[in-house]
Design brief:
Layout: E1 13-17, H1 21-33, E2 37-41, H2 44-53, E3 58-62, H3 70-80, E4 86-91, E5 104-107, H4 112-121
Parallel strand pairs: 1-2, 1-3, 3-4, 4-5
Helix pairs in contact: 2-3
Length: about 120
């Protein structure tokens, strides 16, 4: 898998999964402005359909979503994709379900710099 690189920037193919449309749009815009290729899904089922067609480096997912929560989505992702992409967990509240393996956690609300740090932190 090749990535565009420069002295200061590495770009990724990022899938964002969140049921909040405004947050989904703004996060996509911020990451695209940084040169990343971004895919958006409003729930876990839509995200799995994208993953079936697109190779991604990083998945940023909310945990608390209707229909398929982030925990179920991540479990199915790991069953279907090997090696699994890096995972940034985005949540506005503590998770009380089963433990979820993630590479980076990002609390809502977040700043542009916190978002950048989370993306960069997946490959440290």
């Amino acid at each position: 898998m090749s990535h565009a690189t420069s002295a200061t920037t590495r770009t990724f193919r990022i899938l964002i999964v969140d049921d909040e449309p405004a947050l989904l749009r703004s996060t996509c815009r911020l990451l695209e402005a940084d040169g990343h290729t971004v895919f958006a899904a409003g729930d876990g089922a839509a995200a799995l359909r994208i993953i079936a067609q697109q190779q991604v480096d990083i998945v940023m997912t909310d945990l608390n979503m209707p229909n398929m929560n982030g925990s179920v989505f991540l479990r199915q992702l790991r069953e279907k994709v090997s090696p699994a992409p890096k995972v940034v967990l985005v949540s506005g509240s503590p998770w009380e379900g089963e433990p979820v393996k993630v590479d980076v956690t990002l609390a809502k609300p977040f700043t542009r710099e916190e978002l950048r740090s989370a993306v960069a932190g997946t490959y440290l």
